[in-house]
Amino acid sequence: MRQRVIVCPVIENNGAILLCKMAGDRGVFPGQWALSGGGMEPGENIEQALRREIAEELGDELQITDVQPWTFRDDVRIKTYADGSKEEIYMIYLMFDCTSANRQVTFNEEFQETAWVKPADLHRYDLNEATRETFTKKGWL
Predict the structure, then answer these.
(1) 114-139 tens-digit pLDDT
(2) Do the Cβ atoms of 74 and 91 come closer than 8 Å?
(3) What is the reported pLDDT for 64?
(4) Is the dihedral of CA 56, 65, 137, 15 positive or negative?
(5) φ/ψ of residue 134, rounded to 5
(6) CA–CA gap between residue 136 and residue 58 (Å, rounded)
(7) 61 pLDDT exceeds 90?
(8) Residue 43 backbone dihedrals phi, psi, to 5 degrees
(9) Which residues contact 45 (CB under 8 A, 6 or more apart)?
(10) CA atoms of 77 and 2, how far apart (whole Å)
(11) Do 23 and 81 contact (CB within 8 A), yes or no?
């Protein structure tokens, strides 16, 4: 089984958290709402990986002004690829509290849509299991 270190930002702007609805045909939680993030590449340090993932998935215009390590966890997930193939991966999640100066998001093909959501409204979204666990640990669910 392959192992992957995943950097995952919890991005906040003026009291709202950025959620991303995963594409319906790929990823670990197809079609569900989640946090952005992805795997570290060889030669990257953790913050470089985090900022690269944010730029790739959410665009260069989203201005991240603060990054603070928050927590970590691990689990095993099945990832579905765009071609329909699947892979079991042991994932180590490095979670970060991030603040953005704006809400200018241009998402890539990994997502169907994005939303800035107040913590009190998170229960209205079909959050994936990992995101639900994260928000419960934050005290938001």
Answers:
(1) 999 999 999 999 999 889 999 999 99
(2) yes
(3) 97
(4) negative
(5) -60, -50
(6) 24
(7) yes
(8) 90, -10
(9) none
(10) 11
(11) no
Tally of CB atoms within 10 A around 71: 14
Q: 3-state DSSP call for residue 139?
A: coil
User: If you search the block for the tokens 């609805």, which residue do you land on?
Assistant: 21
DSSP state of 81: P
The token duo for 43 is 């030669």
Which pTM was predicted? 0.90
Q: Which residues pair with 116 in a beta bridge?
A: 18
Report which of 64, 52, 71 is spatially closest to residue 103, judged by C-alpha positions.
Answer: 64
Amino acid at position 66, single letter:
D
Q: Which residue carries 């569900």 as its tokens?
A: 32
Instruction: Please report, for residues 41, 47, 51, the alpha-carbon distance to residue 44 in angstroms, rounded to integers and kept in the order given.
Output: 6, 8, 10
- Length, in residues, of the chain: 141
Grade residue 5 by pLDDT with cuts at 50, 70 and 90.
Answer: very high
